[in-house]
Write a structure and sequence with these properties.
Strand content: 25-35%
Structural class: alpha+beta
Number of strands: 28
Strand order of the largest sheet: 1-28-27-26
Distance between the termini: 128 Å
Number of helices: 10
Helix content: 10-25%
Radius of gyration: 48 Å
Oligomer: single chain
Largest sheet: 4 strands, antiparallel
């Protein structure tokens, strides 16, 4: 049954204080029980109507210490009530709590929040911009943000804090306060619970589902516990293993005698197959030297009336093309040491050849270039005429779509299979162009080298037909070769330094310079793994150099033992 509503009674300081009874009710002096404490439903009819006459009530009412006479009278009644020794500690705690609450309410009446038995959500608590940033270690930042937001909403300035004269006086440093101790405690707790806290780098992860990388927290923990004066990044740099420097020997690891190796700039007498077999033209004979077994095999002998002027392996390394001084092009099987076919057409020596699948390009002293399919009965596919003097350099591009030709007329031409006319003509060289090499790393990048009067290495973009760079080497450029495993190239030189230079592209800085030949270094070939080069000169020697890193081994580790067994120098006869 509902009780009749009675007006609320207020206890003043002059009324007799209530004494605790056994029933927990306060009893007046005449023995009558005072009316019960007014609840929210009694004071607020609207709230009672919202409850819909529910018989359930909160067991403990929570009322905010409002700044009114009621709060002061209530405090006075508690302070003036005689209590037993059993309740002395409780009264002391209540007095301290009420004093603190009243003081905070009086100091900032606009910034305090009122609490009651009715749940009213706080919109400021859900404002992410006013909450404490995750990466900030100062807990006062969030409170300042909430205060500034509350003041801006009410359009009233916040009360100015009293000036701290001790902080401005260096003779009287400020004493540690409870706020400073609380800040330090928060930092320590954050360090322990969050594994060293979040750094500035973690601000990007504030609104992400993924947690920061474990390695990052591990580094932060190590940096927090480390006694080293250097940072974690510097420590990681110092403790990381150093990259092994590539050691390039200044001396060849193997030297072969090659008697009767001609000292002629326009010939190409050395080539290395994909099956690790080296072909060398000596006089009228062609010899095969196996790099795996050091076995020397005589492939052919042209007789006293003819001389070998060029050799070139097919892509698979099973057949060898031999150019002669009489203008013939012979195809030989290396496995059977048998001539398969003879191609005629040139009227002078065939000084240079290059394979493109089953198509062989041959350049001659008769200024012509023949493209022939060795599978067809009529092998001639196309005849290219453009040079005014002997063709001394031929190379197919890595994608086998373009053919570069250099001549003794100082011209460099670019051809394709769709036209009998050059696609590009480069006339910048001032001497014979024999050294030609396509980059295996960049499509359309070509380098070429000039003779004694030119001495330059030039780089071209064959797709746009433009010149890219020019490097003066100081001596005749005889050969050029790109590395298969890194963006470097090697050049061999003649008059007057007779040296081998390893370059780093595109800076074109010299990595090393190799010397040893006493004549022009006219011949150059590369091993199938791309780590070793062989050079030949008019001093009748073949020298093997370890200059490039191997694609299957660590840089700097010699792979000569895989290509060549330990054996004394061989003699090619």
């Amino acid at each position: 049954m509902s009780q009749p509503s009675t007006p609320p009674r207020h206890f003043s300081a002059n009324s007799p204080p209530p004494t605790p009874g056994s029933s927990g009710r306060r009893t007046s002096a005449n023995g009558l029980q005072p009316p019960p404490s007014p609840s929210r439903s009694t004071l607020d009819p609207e709230f009672s109507s919202r409850l819909g006459g529910s018989p359930f009530r909160l067991s403990g009412e929570v009322r905010s210490p409002r700044v009114s006479r009621e709060g002061s009278d209530l405090l006075a009644s508690f302070q003036s009530s005689p209590s037993s020794s059993a309740h002395s500690s409780l009264n002391t705690s209540l007095n301290t709590s009420l004093n603190t609450s009243l003081a905070s309410s009086l100091a900032s009446p606009r910034n305090s929040l009122d609490y009651s038995d009715r749940f009213i959500p706080s919109r400021s608590a859900s404002n992410f911009s006013q909450s404490q940033p995750l990466g900030s270690s100062d807990p006062s930042a969030s409170q300042n943000a909430r205060n500034s937001s509350h003041n801006s909403n009410n359009h009233r300035p916040a009360p100015s804090a009293p000036s701290n004269t001790a902080a401005s006086n260096p003779d009287h440093p400020p004493e540690p306060t409870a706020q400073g101790s609380s800040t330090m405690l928060n930092v320590l707790l954050k360090s322990e619970l969050l594994e060293g806290g979040q750094s500035k780098d973690d601000d990007g992860n504030m609104m992400r589902f993924k947690s920061p990388r474990a390695a990052h927290h591990e580094d932060a923990t190590k940096a927090f516990l480390s006694l080293s004066p250097i940072g974690s990044n510097s420590h990681r740099l110092l403790t990381s293993p150093r990259k092994a420097m590539r050691k390039i020997s200044k001396v060849p690891f193997k030297v072969l005698d090659a008697p009767a190796l001609q000292d002629d700039f326009y010939l190409n007498l050395v080539d290395w197959s994909a099956l690790n077999v080296l072909a060398v033209g000596l006089g009228s004979c062609v010899y095969l030297w196996s790099a795996c077994t050091s076995k020397v095999t005589k492939l052919c002998d042209l007789g006293p009336e003819d001389v070998v002027t060029s050799v070139s392996w097919t892509g698979r390394g099973t057949h060898l093309a031999v150019g002669t001084n009489l203008g013939e092009t012979q195809i030989w099987s290396s496995a059977q040491c048998k001539k398969v076919r003879t191609l005629r057409g040139h009227s002078a020596r065939v000084g240079t050849m290059s394979w493109n699948g089953h198509t062989l390009a041959s350049g001659s002293r008769d200024r012509l270039i023949y493209l022939r399919d060795v599978r067809a009965k009529d092998a001639t596919v196309m005849k290219l005429a453009g040079h005014k003097q002997e063709v001394c350099g031929l190379k197919w591009s890595a994608d086998e779509s373009q053919l570069a030709s250099g001549g003794n007329d100082n011209k460099l031409f670019i051809w394709n299979l769709q036209s009998s006319q050059p696609v590009n003509r480069f006339n910048e060289h001032t001497a014979a162009v024999k050294a030609i090499a396509w980059s295996p790393h960049q499509h359309g990048l070509l380098c070429s080298g000039g003779g004694t009067a030119d001495r330059c290495i030039r780089f071209w973009n064959t797709l746009s037909g433009s010149s890219l760079n020019c490097i003066d080497t100081g001596s005749q450029v005889c050969n050029l070769q790109w590395s298969k495993n890194c963006n470097e190239l090697v050049s061999t030189h003649g008059y007057s330094l007779n040296q081998i230079i390893l370059w780093r592209y595109p800076s074109m800085t010299k990595i090393t310079t190799l010397t040893g030949h006493t004549y022009r270094v006219l011949y150059l070939a590369m091993s199938p793994d791309g780590s070793t080069i062989v050079t030949g000169a008019g001093d009748e020697t073949l020298r093997f150099w370890q200059v490039f890193p191997d694609s299957t081994h660590k840089a700097g580790k010699s792979t000569a033992g895989l290509l060549f067994p330990s054996s004394p120098g061989s003699l090619i006869r």
